[in-house]
Design brief:
This protein is an alpha/beta fold. It has helices at 5-20, 92-105, 164-177, 197-205, 216-224, 249-273, and strands at residues 26-30, 42-48, 66-72, 75-81, 109-118, 128-136, 181-188, 210-212, 228-238. It binds hypoxanthine.
Length: 274
């Protein structure tokens, strides 16, 4: 008989537990903009996605796929290098499967990062934005379908999807280190198209500050599972009706790489203070 979702999560967690031994309580999803963080981790173990049972395999250019275990900022963590995007064709259960496995392994705190287009008129390319809230515009919710009460409640609250205490901690660090750290609402869209000028405008009018193609599914599942979440976006391009520049994947990558030291610095210091 085909394994159900719960059995798959447990099988995958069991495999990782056996391979890795000690397990962390903190996980980081390294999106565009936090890739460099890997170079700061004292790696003790790593597993390619393709050896992990039930794991999807990452395909998109600029992302490789492995789970990393090691020390960063004096804390033992696990990191996902490469995530699964809805636009690649994975369904919402696949996109969020790694978060389920993390929780099963005992992770309580999740850091997520991404690249995003800025609609907020105060934003500049290269800014780092702490995600204070999100708007889910994916066509499907990852919690749709049968609810496993072992994983979380049928109707989870999303009132503090991004942990306020962690946002304050990031602000303290930014103030101490004189870092320009923006705040904003992340709009999650399916992609893979970048927005039309009218769409950027629409997302701004409904309360968005930045838009991207990831993060929201993982954050919904992390909240369902009772994890606390901290999220950051690198603003890699700007959109709106007065903006003429055309965003490209290359430009997004370039802007993200430039902002990496700030992202890495803040996350490392947050880990040290946790
Ligand atoms: N829109 C959607 N996703 C993005 C963008 C954008 O402008 N920039 C980086 N990821």
């Amino acid at each position: 008989m085909e394994k159900n979702y719960l059995e798959k999560i447990r099988e995958t967690a069991g495999f990782i537990r056996e391979k890795v031994g000690e397990l962390p309580h903190i996980a980081v999803i390294l999106g565009t903009g936090l890739g460099d963080l890997v170079n700061h981790i004292e790696i003790t173990n790593e597993l390619d996605y393709h050896v992990i049972p039930n794991f999807p395999v990452s395909t998109v250019e600029g992302h490789s796929g492995r789970l990393i275990f090691g020390n960063l900022g004096g804390k033992y963590i696990m990191a996902m290098q490469g995530r699964f995007h809805y636009y690649e064709g994975y369904d919402m259960k696949e996109v969020t499967f790694p978060v389920r496995v993390m929780r099963e392994l005992g992770v309580e705190t999740l850091f997520v990062s991404n690249a995003a287009g800025g609609m907020n008129k105060e934003f500049r390319v290269g800014d780092v934005m702490v995600i204070t809230d999100h708007i889910n515009l994916f066509p499907e919710n990852p919690l749709r379908g049968k609810n496993y009460d072992e994983l979380g409640p049928r109707f989870p609250a999303m009132t503090e999807a991004y942990c306020n205490a962690m946002i304050h901690m990031a602000d303290d660090i930014a103030r101490e280190q004189d870092i320009r750290l923006m705040h904003g609402v992340y709009v999650g869209t399916p992609g893979p198209t970048f927005e039309t000028p009218a769409e950027y405008e629409y997302f701004r009018v409904i309360g968005g500050d930045a838009v991207g193609m990831s993060t929201v599914p993982e954050v919904i599942v992390a909240n369902h599972a009772g994890m606390r979440v901290f999220g950051v976006s690198v603003i890699t391009d700007l959109g709106g009706k007065d903006i003429k520049e055309v965003p490209t994947h290359e430009e997004v990558q370039k802007a993200a790489i430039k902002a990496q030291p700030v992202m890495t610095g803040v996350i490392k210091e947050m880990l040290a203070r946790l």
